[in-house]
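Try it yourself: sequence plus iron/sulfur cluster, in.
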Amino acid sequence: MSLCHPDVGNVSCGACCGLFNLKLQPKEFKTLLLERTFEFQTTVNFEVRHSFPIFRKERETKEAHIPKKDDMTYNCPFLGYVDPAKQRIGCMIHPIFTGDPKSQNFSFYGASICQAYDCKNKESILADLWESLFVEIAKDSVEYSFLSADHIFSYALEKYFQLLNISMDRMFQEFRLEMMDLFRMRLQTSAEKNFTSFEINYESFSDLSVLEDYFSKELGQSWKDWREGMTKKNPG
Ligand code: SF4
Ligand code: SF4
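Structure, out:
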């Protein structure tokens, strides 16, 4: 389908619905998503329109105590699990479930914003390649969302390989394991970040020294170890 909902695997992304603005650990995200899903399935009736705003109000009240990384970013409670196995996350009031093209108007953003928004990674010409890599790495939808929303990191990596004169084909094939290692390191630091996918990349990453600084800041010693391995494999 798309980076948001891959055809393969049991993972999907929900980062742009504000999930990661909540200061929670990966396990707590899953508990919250399960709670929302259970409450939604037991209280919302698609035939009863006022059951949507009641659910939204109830959840907003219940989630008000969760610390936020940015008070101005909204966390939509309609994001939950959308498959019977409770593995894929998505919009529980998406028209494919409700049959109503405007049902997302019950949310804070409204249907037109919910349906029009595409993050940088989704817009990228490499979206399919990123998708297959992230599906391979992610253990669950929370990890997949962290990876998919982190478009500045993906972009920096594209630039890094480009500046090493390694083509994108080689990057995703020959260096696939190295990429997977790097993203796994990234996942270890992701809980601290606030990936909404709305982040703007002000950095052009025009040369290797800028990229060095960026990756060292983001990954610390792990980056230096990884780069040493890369240099051995690709002495340049
Ligand atoms: S952050 Fe990107 S990949 Fe994730 S749901 Fe939003 S648009 Fe899709
Ligand atoms: S209503 Fe919009 S913001 Fe809320 S979960 Fe659905 S798509 Fe995301």
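One thing you can check immediately is this: The first helix runs from residue 26 to 43.
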